[in-house]
Structure formats: C-alpha cells, structure tokens
Design a protein that fits this description.
Shape of chain A: rod-shaped
Strand content of chain B: 5-15%
Helix content of chain A: over 70%
Number of helices of chain A: 1
Oligomer: heterodimer
Number of strands of chain B: 4
Radius of gyration of chain A: 65 Å
Strand order of the largest sheet of chain B: 1-2
Largest sheet of chain B: 2 strands, antiparallel
Radius of gyration of chain B: 23 Å
Number of strands of chain A: 0
Largest interface: A-B, 29 and 44 residues
Structural class of chain B: mainly alpha
C-alpha cells in the first residue's frame, strides 16, 4: 500500500518510544525533583506562615487576657481608691468632730476660768475698794471732823 | 585615521577576501541534488535515510529525535546530580530559571485543567521541552551520513511527518485518558467528539516545522542567499516558531484535556 507522505508505522512507534523514554527521564531527573523542592519550600513557608499566625493569635489572646486583667485591676483600684477616700473622709470627719469638741471644751473651760478670774478680780477689787473707801472715809472723817470743829469754833468765835 | 576605523577597514577587507575565496572555490557544479529533489526529500523523507544502530533505516528526523532525547537526558542527569542537591530556599539564577520553567508548565496545566492537572503538567513539560529543543536543534547543523553515503544536515525531529503524527496522536491519547479518568465512559464520548484533533495537531506541527526546513534548505541551496540572510530567516524564524509551536501544542492539549476531564453533572 502506497502511504502518502511516506508515513511509516514503525517509525511512528519509534518516535513514540523515543518520546516515552524522554518523558520518563525528564520526569524522574528534572521535573519531579524540582517540583518536590518547590513543594518543600512552599510547605516550609506555609509552616512559617502558620507559625506566625499561631503566634499572632496567641499574642492576641494574651493581649485580651491582659486587657481583661487590666480592666479588673482598674476596677479594683477604683474600688480601693473610693474606699480609701471614704475612710479618709470618715477619719477627717471624726478628727474634725473631736477637734470641735475639744475646742468647745477648751472654750468652755476658758470661759469658766475667765469667769472665775473675773469674780476673783471683782471680789478683790471690791475688797480693795471697800478698804480704800474705809480708809478714805476714815481720812475724810478725820479731816472733816477737825475742819468742822474749826468752823464751829470759828463761827462760835465770830458770834 | 583612528585605530578604531583602521580595525574596521581591516575587518571588512578580511571579510571581502574570504568571500572572494569562497566564490572562487565554490563547488557549484558539484551539487548532487537539484532543489526540487532537496525539497521533495524534506517533505517525503524517502531518499536520504539513515541507519538506526544498524537495525533499520529511518528518516533523518528520527535520528534527530534520538540525539535530542539523549542530549536532554544527559543535561537533565547533570542538573539532577550537580545542581538540584544544592538548591536553596532563596534561589540563585540557574535555580530560578529551572523553577520558572517547571512552574510555568505546572501553572499552565493548572489554569487550563483545574480539576485534574498533575499528569497533564508532566506531559506538557516533556512535550514542550522536546518540541522547543528539537526545533532549535536544526540550527546546530549536525551532519550525518545517509545510507547512500551522502552527508546531510539533520533536521528538526518534528519536521518528519512520522514524528509529528506520533506527538499529535499521543497528545490526543493523553486527552482521551484525561476524559476517561475524569468522566469514565462519558469522557471517551467527549474526547471522541474532537476526532479530528490528532490529525490537525499532527499536520499543524509537521507543516510548521517543515516550513522552517524548506526555507532553510532553500537559503542554503543557493550560494548567494547563504550569506547574512540565514541569520535572520534561519535563526530568528527558527527561534520564533520553536516558541510558537511549543505554545500551540501545549495550549491545545491542555485546554482539550481540561474540557474533557472537567466533571460533568448528570
């Protein structure tokens, strides 16, 4: 049979055999090792990425935990501050009250002491005045007695 | 005259002297084949056959295929032994090139056939490498002796119709296998709908590669055309259609594979 273009089945099969050998060789020697290496590298970087993502997630969780803890600590600190303020106010009030009591007691005692002093001064003054009045009266009486006598004697004489 | 200009003048004189020498010693009258025979043989491959290890006589394209396969396997083995064990997580230039090539085919398969792409990526990597390197192989001008004792320049492996049919049919079989694995019996039906695919793939490859061979043969056959012009017409066109044919085959195979292996709802 005259096949156009000199097509030959045996040579087609030889070409196929040749290409099959080439394909097998290229696959085993070049394609697979390079693909495997690229896959290995991709896995490595995927692993790194996953590791970083895990660490980021952990950091995020840690951040949230610390934020919660910070919030509770702040609330606790606020409560403590308020309590301390309240106690301080109470202490101040108590101190103020006792100071006021002490002041009023001191004032009262001072008033009493002043009253006593006044009374004492008045008493002494009265005594002094009395004694001075007596003295003066005695003196006046002594003077006035001589003068009256003189006047009487003078008037007697004159008459 | 500056030194630079002197050097250019000397260079041009040397080229002209060489050209004169070439023309004077040209064996124009000793051509063993006419251009018609050369062209016919490039298409038919029925005259210049080469012995394959003394077993059988085959077309020159098959010998090119064996040489390309051997070269690729040797290079792959060297890379496997000397470079791949030294791969780093931060790649160097050579590692980057290798990863880019492998990654390109893997991504290409994944993009065109998202459901099933591992086997496809290996196939298009091997087919792409074979087509690309095989097409560039014709640039080397490797010589071989035919069974009739004539020296010939080995062509690209896929400029042989048998090589193109082999790769076209294999690609189709790969697509059918994707359909079977993906959708069972229904997948075979889906793949068989494109029954013209192996034919179109084979002849597209053959036609594209053959056009390169014919242009190159034509350029080198006529002595006056073989100066300067092959640099543009040979090298650049070969590079271009090496890239284009690689892309076309892997694109067609991947998109067809993706289409038939896609799970269809009942």
């Amino acid at each position: 049979m005259n096949v156009p273009l000199n097509i030959d089945l045996q040579q087609i099969l030889l070409h196929l055999l040749n290409f099959s050998v080439l394909s097998l060789g290229l696959y085993l020697l070049l394609y697979k090792p390079v693909q495997d290496f690229m896959q290995k590298r991709a896995d490595y970087y995927l692993g790194l990425k996953k590791q970083v993502e895990d660490q980021l997630k952990q950091a995020e969780e840690l951040k949230q935990t610390y934020e919660k803890r910070l919030e509770s600590v702040e609330a606790e600190a606020k409560q403590t501050r308020e309590k301390a303020l309240r106690e301080a106010n109470q202490a101040v009030d108590a101190l103020l009250q006792s100071a006021q009591q002490q002041a009023s007691r001191i004032i009262s005692e001072a008033q009493k002491a002043a009253q006593r002093e006044r009374e004492k001064v008045l008493e002494e003054a009265q005594k002094e005045i009395t004694s001075m009045v007596l003295e003066a009266t005695e003196k006046i009486l002594a003077q006035s007695a001589s003068d009256t006598l003189d006047q009487f004697l003078y008037s007697v004489n004159k008459e | 005259m500056t030194k630079k200009r002197k050097a250019v003048v000397v260079w041009v004189c040397v080229i002209l002297a060489l050209l004169v020498g070439v023309f004077l010693t040209s064996p124009q009258g000793e051509k063993q084949e006419s251009i018609k025979e050369v062209m016919r043989d490039a298409v038919m491959h029925d005259v210049n056959q080469i012995s394959l290890f003394g077993v059988t006589d085959v077309n020159a394209g098959l010998i090119s295929g064996v040489i390309v396969t051997s070269a690729l396997l040797i290079v792959a083995a060297l890379i496997r032994v000397f470079f791949i064990p030294k791969f780093q997580y931060i790649p160097g230039k050579f590692q980057l090139v290798l990863e880019q090539i492998v990654g390109f085919f893997a991504d290409f398969a994944k993009k065109n056939s998202p459901h099933r792409h591992r086997f496809l990526s290996v196939y298009i990597f091997c087919a792409g490498s074979y087509i690309f390197v095989g097409t560039l192989f014709e640039l080397l001008g490797v010589q071989a002796i035919t069974t009739s004792g004539r020296p010939i320049t080995l062509p690209a492996p896929l400029s042989d119709i048998n090589g193109a049919i082999a790769l076209g049919c294999l690609s189709y079989l790969i697509v059918v296998s994707g359909g079977i694995v993906g959708n069972g019996a229904k997948g075979i039906g889906l793949a068989l709908k494109d029954f013209s695919m192996p034919l179109s793939m084979s002849f597209r490859l053959f036609g594209a590669l053959l056009s390169g061979v014919l242009v190159t043969e034509l350029l080198y056959y006529y002595f006056v055309l073989s100066f300067g012009l092959p640099v543009v017409a040979g090298v650049l066109f070969t590079l271009l259609h090496a890239l284009v044919q690689t892309y076309v085959l892997i694109m067609l195979t991947s998109s067809s594979y993706g289409e038939v292996s896609k799970p269809h709802k009942k």
